[in-house]
Write a sequence for this structure.
């Protein structure tokens, strides 16, 4: 299948697990069946907040055939350990949101399971609920802690308050974004076996085996070696399988422990959409001061995320959002006030971009307005204010990347034919019912965990030779479609100086692989890839120094030598542990210093047409130019960008989570619309390669970047088309209609 | 209670395909025969069982996936008598005596082989979950239109959702396969 291309970094090696995927042989959670398995299901709350008064088991159901689990069956702690322990595994008395799990059932027959689920009646007593961000933020009704805050922090640079009176102009704006469903095509699913003697093993669709491991430790109280988590082939994650699988794993393992049988639980689409995490809704307020030359003097930003009912990952999501809130600009005075607030909706969680798409949408829409107030073209205004190498960000981080955003901007605009189109559309739009527009966004994405997150994590990865001399890469990072298996293969092959066919990527299984951290935050390639590279260099050194191989060795010689070494000593394995680069200093309390070891930078340009009869907007052309360090695998990298941009198109225009009384009511693929092949343009992807000194072979993280830029570029284009600001995501026809109506009313 | 060894379970995962369930004793079952990837098969099932479940649970063909269960995503697409169909919406009774092709068709013809290769080379598959359905949609397209334009490809694939690729590389893969077949490379 295609010829194997000789090494390595920079080549487009074919996806290593491609063949089983195209022949239908890959094993996903739903494809795994074991003898005597039961099927599990969940009974959930319906009210947004309240107390469970009683659980009634309806008549006419053979309940004896069922395994029934409630909070009473939890062996240790009724909490899913994430950042803190506030989310229960099963409701015991009070509950904080609809779709919270109360009763778990298992039965050998799926049809009977459905009947059982329909006949468990939860008697709920309501408590006052807070259903949206504004209500939560003003804290007139407190539903969490003393002020509804899940996390709160401030970033300060200079002194914004000293500027307002001297400013030439002050521009204000409010920007809102809705929740977004990850919509991996494979729903969440798990299978578990459990016994007090042997412990718990779960197999499933997940991004972060050690997150699940940690949560199961808390729920079962077993020793760590008695908890085993194995990732199966995973049909997409995008953040949606970062924290929720911990809850599902606990549920399915509780059923397995009680029934003493293997239990499998696969969510159907409706349950998956209603109950699992989504992107946080947001509200951002900007107040910006400029001088006569169109230079930024001060940016005051209030950034609030709706975290849903429990803390889960919201503190880190809001952190990343806040750290990206002032965009890629140099401004002497910045204040970013951020909060994640609790509401009585299912917890919002990780979704590709992790807070940054929300805050970057706001700042890139706002800069368009500030440019207009300054009387400057959008690109001219950006050029006067874009950050440069050596400048300080809002946290005082000195940009070390060798980045020329001005040049990046010019290049992207030229590739999109921006100026010619802007002029042409302005000429033709007045006489056309279809209005066309073009807009862009300039943005960055911090690679890896925020601040000292990577130090706390202290990730470890390993490489080990098998008896046959093949080299196994051992890491807990998961392949979720992004190409991790292939990129790791290339990095290890490159470090060893062998053909990629010698490298084997082992399945993430907590019994066998070290904890190299979660598969999140665009960190797999840059952080874990680097660890594997270091470990592989170590292994090669052992063989070189022991004279098992000599410089100029072939792949065959390397393999033979590795096999010989293993035979002689029983083991050939090397590890590498994460070390924070010496120049990184981060102050967690004051949000000062080096927020990220490096950033990826990008300019995206979108062309749209808006039908003024139907108020529908459509993306007709898209250019995505980015600087992501050295590109390890150009074809896979382009695939990441195209996929991310498409999710961004959905975020901008189509994907609307509709809630009623704290429950998502359009929890079906038929009424939550994601882009199809005919809704997406041909996306032109371009890379500017500036090798990054910290990443393997000069690579940076890439996974999340492409979701940051599309929405503001598209809405800037919509404004260019219709001459009206649309500051709400998604910009559905109703939103565009309302904005146009408001604008007319104003005149 | 038989002790369950977790290590063994992992390897048994795909072999123990026909999860036997209580319904086998049910008197409402009917016998249905059809051709699956060129072989005659017979199953005893409820007539209203979804073809998707029969293919997977009774016949062990796990390549056909469920993404929505309501005809929206196309992950469950197969070819029935050369037509592209979402198996989550088809009661098994309807396929009695008909000819079904799935992603597992080993001798699936030149289109399937060319598309499988092109999807790997072009990175038309990422997480892979939409891929079997996507490839069956493409087989159907190329069997009816050997040289589709980009627009025709996009239209033909619009009933299959992919959340990973942004469709660009899927379109490229179909173009590559069409060229290979047209150029007599296969
Ligand atoms: S599962 Fe059949 S169309 Fe989605
Ligand atoms: S490859 Fe993941 S949904 Fe298409």
């Amino acid at each position: 299948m295609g010829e194997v291309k000789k090494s390595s970094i920079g080549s487009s090696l074919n996806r290593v697990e491609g063949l089983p995927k195209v022949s239908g042989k890959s094993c996903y959670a739903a494809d795994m069946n074991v003898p005597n398995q039961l099927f599990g299901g969940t009974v959930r709350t319906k009210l947004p907040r309240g107390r469970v008064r009683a659980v009634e088991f309806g008549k006419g159901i053979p309940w004896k055939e069922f395994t029934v689990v409630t909070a009473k069956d939890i062996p240790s702690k009724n909490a899913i350990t994430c950042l803190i322990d506030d989310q229960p595994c099963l409701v015991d008395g009070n509950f904080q949101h609809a779709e919270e799990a109360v009763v778990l059932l298992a039965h050998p027959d799926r049809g009977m399971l459905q009947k059982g689920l329909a006949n468990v009646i939860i008697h709920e007593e309501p408590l006052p609920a807070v259903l949206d961000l504004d209500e939560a933020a003003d804290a007139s009704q407190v539903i969490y802690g003393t002020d509804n805050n899940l996390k709160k922090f401030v970033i300060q640079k200079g002194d914004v308050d000293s500027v307002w009176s001297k400013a030439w102009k002050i521009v204000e704006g409010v920007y809102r974004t809705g929740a977004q469903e990850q919509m991996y095509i494979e729903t969440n699913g798990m299978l578990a076996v459990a016994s007090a003697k042997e412990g718990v093993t779960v197999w499933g669709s997940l991004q972060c085996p050690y997150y699940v491991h940690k949560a199961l430790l808390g729920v079962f109280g077993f020793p760590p070696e008695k908890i085993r988590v194995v990732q199966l082939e995973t049909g997409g994650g995008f953040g949606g399988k970062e924290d929720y699988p911990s809850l599902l794993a606990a549920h399915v393992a509780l059923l397995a422990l009680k029934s003493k049988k293997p239990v499998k639980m696969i969510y159907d689409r409706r349950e998956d959409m209603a109950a699992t995490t989504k992107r946080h809704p947001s509200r951002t307020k900007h107040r910006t001061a400029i001088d006569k030359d169109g230079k930024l003097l001060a940016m005051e930003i209030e950034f609030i995320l709706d975290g849903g009912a429990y803390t889960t990952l919201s503190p880190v999501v809001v952190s990343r959002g806040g750290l990206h809130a002032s965009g890629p600009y140099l401004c002497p005075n910045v204040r970013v006030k951020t909060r994640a607030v609790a509401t009585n909706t299912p917890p919002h969680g990780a979704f590709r971009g992790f807070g940054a798409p929300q805050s970057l949408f706001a700042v890139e829409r706002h800069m368009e307005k500030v440019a207009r107030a300054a009387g400057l073209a959008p690109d001219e205004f950006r050029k006067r204010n874009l950050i440069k190498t050596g400048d300080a960000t809002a946290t005082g981080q000195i940009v070390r990347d060798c980045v020329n955003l001005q040049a990046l901007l010019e290049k992207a605009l030229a590739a999109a034919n921006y100026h010619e189109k802007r002029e042409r559309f302005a000429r033709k739009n007045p006489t056309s019912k279809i209005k066309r527009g073009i807009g862009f966004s300039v943005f960055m994405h911090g690679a890896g965990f925020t601040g000292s997150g990577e130090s706390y994590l202290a990730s470890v990865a390993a490489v080990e030779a098998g008896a046959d001399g093949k080299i196994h890469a051992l890491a807990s990072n998961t392949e979720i479609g992004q190409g991790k298996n292939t990129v790791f293969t290339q990095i290890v092959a490159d470090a060893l100086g062998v053909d990629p066919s010698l490298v084997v990527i082992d399945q993430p299984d907590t019994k066998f692989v070290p904890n190299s951290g979660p598969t999140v935050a665009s960190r797999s390639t840059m952080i874990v890839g680097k660890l594997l590279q270091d470990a592989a260099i170590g292994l090669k050194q052992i063989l070189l120094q022991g004279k098992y191989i000599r410089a100029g060795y072939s792949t065959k010689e390397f393999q033979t030598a590795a096999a010989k070494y293993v035979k002689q000593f029983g083991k050939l394995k090397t590890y590498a542990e994460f070390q924070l680069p010496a120049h990184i200093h981060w102050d967690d309390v004051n949000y000062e210093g080096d927020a990220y070891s490096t950033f990826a930078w990008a300019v995206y340009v979108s062309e749209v047409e808006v039908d003024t009869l139907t108020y529908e907007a459509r993306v007709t052309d898209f250019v995505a130019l980015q600087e992501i360090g050295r590109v390890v695998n150009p074809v896979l990298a382009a695939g990441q960008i195209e996929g991310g941009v498409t999710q961004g198109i959905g975020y901008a225009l189509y994907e609307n989570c509709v809630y009623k009384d704290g429950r998502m009511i359009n929890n079906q693929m038929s009424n939550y619309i994601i882009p199809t092949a005919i809704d997406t343009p041909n996306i032109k992807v371009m890379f500017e390669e500036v090798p990054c000194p910290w990443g393997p072979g000069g690579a940076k993280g890439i996974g999340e970047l492409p979701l940051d830029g599309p929405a503001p570029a598209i809405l800037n284009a919509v404004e260019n088309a219709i001459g009206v600001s649309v500051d709400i995501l998604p910009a559905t026809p109703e939103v565009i209609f309302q904005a146009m109506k408001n604008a007319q009313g104003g005149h | 209670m038989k002790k369950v060894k977790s290590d063994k379970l992992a390897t048994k995962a795909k072999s123990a395909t026909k999860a036997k369930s209580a319904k086998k004793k049910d008197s409402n079952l009917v016998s249905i025969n059809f051709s699956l990837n060129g072989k005659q098969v017979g199953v005893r099932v409820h007539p209203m069982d979804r073809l998707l479940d029969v293919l997977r649970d009774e016949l062990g063909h796990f390549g056909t996936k469920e993404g929505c269960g309501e005809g929206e995503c196309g992950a469950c697409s197969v070819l029935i008598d050369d037509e592209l169909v979402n198996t989550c919406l088809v009661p098994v009774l309807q396929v009695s005596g008909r000819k079904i092709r799935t992603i597992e068709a080993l001798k699936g013809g030149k289109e399937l082989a060319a598309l499988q290769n092109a999807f790997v080379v072009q990175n038309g598959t990422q997480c892979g979950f939409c891929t079997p359905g996507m490839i069956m949609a493409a087989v159907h397209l190329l069997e009816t239109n050997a040289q589709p334009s980009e627009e025709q490809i996009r239209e033909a694939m619009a009933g299959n959702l992919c959340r990973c690729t942004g469709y660009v590389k899927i379109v490229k893969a179909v173009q590559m396969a069409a060229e290979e077949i047209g150029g007599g490379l296969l």
Observations:
- Chain A touches chain B through 78 residues (CB under 8 Å).
